[in-house]
Amino acid sequence: MGLVKRLKAAYDVCVGSEEITQDERERIHFYLAVRSIVYKLTKGDAPDTAQMNQKGA
Predict the structure, then answer these.
(1) What domain count does the chain have?
(2) SS3 per-residue string spanning 1-57
(3) Domain Type I restriction enzyme HindI endonuclease subunit-like C-terminal spans what residues (predicted)?
């Protein structure tokens, strides 16, 4: 979790740079999305699958 947080901070500084390739941007967004999901599932009050399915229906 800490490494992805550092990645986000570095990305925020470099986001406007032309040196970051599209592939690198996609990988960064992937890691940020995975971190977000893991954080939401482990923070303690995450909904279970039944609750998520009920909201999605």
Answers:
(1) 1
(2) CHHHHHHHHHHHHHCCCCCCCHHHHHHHHHHHHHHHHHHHHHCCCCCCHHHHHHHHC
(3) 2-53
